Amino acid sequence: MEDLKRIAAVHDISGFGKCSLTVALPVISASGVECSCLPTALLSTHTGGFEGYTFKDLSDEMLPIAKHWKKENVTFDGIYSGYLASAGQAEMLEEIIGILSTEKTKIIVDPVMADNGKYYSHFGDEMCRAFRRLCGKAHIITPNITEASLLTDMPYKEGPHDREYIEQLAKRLSGICGGIIAITGVSPEKNSVGVYAFNTRTGEECLSVRPVREGIFHGTGDIFASAFAALMIRGAKLADAAETAISLVSESIDRTSARGTPRRNGVDFEGALPYYIQKVSELFSK
Ligand code: PXL
Question: What are phi and psi of 20, to 5 degrees?
Answer without folding.
Answer: 40, -125
